[in-house]
Write a structure and sequence with these properties.
The chain is mainly alpha-helical. The protein has ten helices and five strands. The strands form two sheets. Strands 3-2-5 form a three-stranded mixed sheet. Helix 3 packs across helix 4 (131-137) and helix 3 (96-129) runs antiparallel to helix 8 (234-267). The model has no long low-confidence stretch (mean pLDDT 87).
Length: 312
């Protein structure tokens, strides 16, 4: 493939322009993002402190909630400080390697988050459908192994994207990224070389992770609902279903935003860029904002310990 004369050879600095079409109101858009980020950091930190300090919460379900909190903190911190730097302080420049690091963190921890939601669904499936086996099945050793597998899967699937961008591409059409953070396809579209392999691999990772996790999460909840509705007592049905409500809320809001962001980016040619960028940013930040609120409100044990901690 021929490379045109108007290209840049391995740029050391890139420019993030924020939200194209909304540059004049970016300073105001930054306010709700900042509020959500602060609530997400405080809420998830409180969750981690409560789960760590209370021995009664050292169970698989709460350990997974804690892992989800760590993931949300990393995802929020990966994008919001730089985003606010663009919106409020007009600092759009970012080093190329820092951009790749941000991209790697975002996509790796997105994959980890999806894996944790799958683990939580399987935990609820065993707890409700096979309650007598739960304590013997979901041991602390198994939880550690699940955490290791989820992390390694994310690292192995995410690393090729970074390697291909770093070592395959030498020439770029521009150094301007039409986004408020370093997203895989936004960087790939800047390259002045053949990007087909990168696009195919990006689709492969997206459909592998989302397809695998979504399939088993859905099957787990189908089995849970079948078991719950077979329970003879209404109170028992409600109690069993209530343990899943928080997980279902988190699962739905994450994947609805994820699929909207994914399909508008690749197939929404007529969707304004600012719509896609806003939703892709919300997709990363809204789960971090809502998760501690959902688990704090819907999980009785966490709510009790939170009230005790605040009163003390």
């Amino acid at each position: 493939m021929s490379v045109s004369n108007i290209t840049v050879f391995r740029p050391s600095v890139l420019t993030l322009i924020g939200i194209p079409g909304l540059e004049t109101v970016q300073c105001w858009i930054g306010i709700p993002f900042c509020v959500m980020y602060l609530i997400a950091m405080i809420g998830n930190s409180l969750l981690l402190i409560i789960i760590r300090s209370e021995r009664s919460l050292h169970e698989p379900m709460y350990i997974f909630v804690g892992m989800l909190g760590v993931t949300d903190i990393v995802l929020g911190t990966s994008i919001v400080p730089k985003m606010l730097g663009i919106f409020w302080f007009h600092v759009p420049e970012i080093y190329f390697d820092s951009c790749l690091l941000q991209m790697g963190l975002i996509h790796t921890f997105q994959c980890i988050e999806s894996g944790i939601l799958l683990a939580m669904a399987l935990d609820r499936y065993v707890a409700i459908c096979h309650p007598l086996r739960h304590s013997a099945t979901f041991t602390h050793r198994l939880v550690t192994q699940i955490a290791a597998v989820v992390t390694l899967r994310a690292a192995f699937l995410g690393a090729p994207c970074l390697i291909m961008i770093k070592f395959r591409f030498q020439f770029y059409h521009t150094t301007i990224i039409s986004h408020c953070y370093c997203e895989h396809m936004a960087i790939v579209k800047m390259a002045a070389e053949n990007v087909r392999v990168n696009k195919i691999y990006g689709l492969f990772v997206a459909f592998t992770v989302a397809g695998f996790d979504l399939t088993f999460i859905t099957l787990s909840y189908i089995q849970i609902f079948i078991t719950v509705f077979r329970l003879p007592q209404k109170e028992a049905r409600w109690k069993a279903f209530n343990t899943c409500i928080a997980h279902i809320c988190v699962f739905l809001q994450l994947y609805i935003l994820a699929f909207f962001s994914f399909f508008t980016h690749r197939f929404g040619a007529h969707v304004p860029p600012y719509i896609h960028i806003l939703f892709s940013s919300l997709y990363l930040l809204v789960p971090a904002f809502f998760n501690p609120l959902v688990y704090g409100a819907k999980t009785k044990q966490i709510r009790i310990h939170l009230i005790k901690m605040l009163y003390s």
